[in-house]
Design brief:
Layout: H1 3-23, H2 33-38, H3 42-70, H4 75-98, H5 101-119, H6 121-124
Amino acid sequence: MEIAWWCVLAAGLMPFLVAAPAKLTRTYDNADPRGWAARQEGFRKRALAAHANAFEASPLFAAAVIVAEVEGMPQDPVDTLALVWLLLRVAYTGAYYAGWSTLRSIVWVLAVGTAVAILTMPAWLF
């Protein structure tokens, strides 16, 4: 399996991993998870927001990799950009956890730009 496909799998699992630190508490209410989430502050609130954003970011990235693969793009640049996207998303999550909003926004733009670069690769690579 190509590296880019492993990155798509990681992107699909990322939302669950991102939320885990917020839910590692005795106060987590599995009977009312949305109510519990609405009452959170600080780190837990930011981690849950990062969790939601991970769900939002994954479809564009997955579609980009699929388009690049269907269009027969060279695997090395697709794999490289997929890894860059994944690393940027990890950095984004870290910035969100830390409350570094400006850095988080910069990294978000870079990650979206990377997904767009993969998606549009058929237009600019050939």
